[in-house]
Structure formats: structure tokens, C-alpha cells
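Customer ticket, subject: "Can you confirm the structure for All-trans retinoic acid-induced differentiation factor?"

Message body: Hello, I'm evaluating your service for our small team and ran a test protein. I'd like someone to confirm that this is what the system normally returns, since I don't have a reference to compare against.
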Amino acid sequence: MSPRGPCSPSIPLPWAAALLLALGVERDLAQPEICVHCPGSVRNLSEVASYCKHTPELKLRARCCLNQEGAILGLDLQNCSLKDPGPNFSQAHTAVIIDLQANPLKDDLANAFRGFTQLQTLILPQDVNCPGGINAWNVVTSYPNYQTCQGQRDFCNSTGDTEICPENGSCVPDGPGLLQCICVDGFHGYKCMRQGSFSLLMFFGILGSTTLSISILLWGTQRRKAKAS
Ligand SMILES: *[C@@H]1O[C@H](CO)[C@@H](O)[C@H](O)[C@H]1NC(C)=O
Ligand SMILES: *[C@@H]1O[C@H](CO)[C@@H](O)[C@H](O)[C@H]1NC(C)=O
Ligand SMILES: *[C@@H]1O[C@H](CO)[C@@H](O)[C@H](O)[C@H]1NC(C)=O
Ligand SMILES: *[C@@H]1O[C@H](CO)[C@@H](O)[C@H](O)[C@H]1NC(C)=O
Ligand SMILES: *[C@@H]1O[C@H](CO)[C@@H](O)[C@H](O)[C@H]1NC(C)=O
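Agent reply: Thanks for trying us out. I re-ran your input and got the following:
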């Protein structure tokens, strides 16, 4: 008879199997819709493919290059007949490289890239301007069939204006040519002028602290008005 009784530790095995299964299922379910937004996979010779193959932990799935957590680091939607990036494009806000060339895109992409703070290389059709304008990027290069926007600038710095945000707000980048003013601890409300504890803060943590999500455009307008008056 085995020295171990009927209660020998056979439980961990099914548990482990169940866990692996659950993780596997979760991984599959977690594949973002934007990765299958158009048929096919990342083009073999695309920049996204070479970026993805460069790092062993990254894997190609449909039109995406994903990291181990399933976050999108690369997205290749070239030649997808896209007129606009679509509502699910924001799923790619973690991307470092995005290829949108050979699409009939309308030239109004500024808001599509809100929150895309990691983006370093963007490939666009030749007739579409880099989001945020030329000043939002370190290098903009035109080729016969496409153009590249490379090296996203920190827009909190590149405006050269230290007073973009209200007195008790701090500036954080929010994508190409975009920024956000976040009220410092203890302040909330319009222009971070209200002081005191904010009851929702304890429930929402950092997300609950009032953020003034604004574009530089909006602030520019307000500041110009303020100066004018
Ligand atoms: C492209 O990828 C496919 C499989 O995904 C492969 O069969 C083919 O040889 C690759 N082509 C090149 C040029 O690497
Ligand atoms: C774009 O896709 C179509 C098929 O959907 C294909 O015929 C064409 O060659 C592709 N163009 C490029 C530049 O890859
Ligand atoms: C966006 O994703 C949702 C699921 O989250 C899906 O139902 C919808 O069809 C997608 N929209 C587009 C335009 O792909
Ligand atoms: C932007 O400014 C911050 C602090 O002022 C600095 O740490 C950061 O390196 C700057 N970023 C760039 C891209 O200049
Ligand atoms: C910013 O905070 C300081 C105290 O930290 C306060 O004295 C000042 O009035 C605040 N400014 C505004 C505009 O609320």
C-alpha cells in the first residue's frame, strides 16, 4: 500500500490544469478586436513584423504584435480599405509601432490617437498628415507611397510654455500633439481650483481624481481669450 492515503496531494494537478486552461481561454478571448479588424496577418516584410521578430517575448497574432500580457505593441492595418481607424482603434493605445499605409484615410486623425503615448513609429498614406502636426514628432519623412512619423515628442515640453496647466494641475502627455492637465492631490474641479477631499476619490483612486482632459487646442483658445481680455 502506498504510504500516502486517499487524500494524497493529487488535487494540485487538476487545479493546475484548470488554471492553465482558464489562462489559455482568457488569452484567446483577450485578443483585441482591432487585431482582426481586417483579414489576414501582419505582412511578412512590414516594419511591424520586423519589430515583433526583434524581441523574443513578442508574438504575432492576426494584424497585431502582442506582448505576453496581450497588450498591443504593434499594429499592421495596411491595405485594409480603412476610411477611418474605427471605434476599436483605441485598443491599440499601447502600441509602439502602427502601419496604416495604403488606406483611403481621411486626413483628420488627431483624435484617433488620443492616449497613444507609447507610439514611436507611425506609417501613413502619403496624403495624410502626421497626427498632432509636424511639431508633435521628431522626424517626418515622405516616400513616394507613404510617409513616416517617428519619435513622438512630449507635448508638455515642446510647447515651451510652463503655464499650460492651471496652478495646481500638472501636465502629462496624452498622445501626439495632445496633453492632459491632472489636478494635484487635494485639488479637483474646473482648472483644479477646488480644494478639499473629494468623496469619490476613495472609491476610484487615481482615476477618480479629477482630470481635466483637454487638448492643447482648447487651452490655446482659452489662453488667447484670457490674454485678449
Ligand atoms: C510569409 O509568411 C508565410 C507564412 O506566414 C510564408 O509561407 C512565406 O514564405 C513568407 N514570405 C516571406 C517572403 O518571408
Ligand atoms: C491590397 O490588397 C489587395 C487584396 O485585398 C491586393 O490585391 C493588393 O495587391 C494589395 N496591395 C498591396 C499594396 O499590398
Ligand atoms: C468593435 O468591437 C466590438 C466588440 O468589443 C465589436 O462588436 C464591434 O463589431 C467592433 N467594431 C468594429 C467596427 O470593428
Ligand atoms: C520633458 O520634461 C521632463 C521634466 O521637465 C523631463 O524629465 C523629460 O526628459 C522631458 N522630455 C523630453 C522628451 O524632453
Ligand atoms: C494652489 O494651491 C495652493 C496651496 O497649495 C493655494 O494656495 C492656491 O490658492 C491654489 N491655487 C488655485 C488657483 O487654486
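A couple of notes from the result: The first strand starts at residue 59 and ends at 61. Residues 156-228 form one domain. Feel free to reply with more questions.
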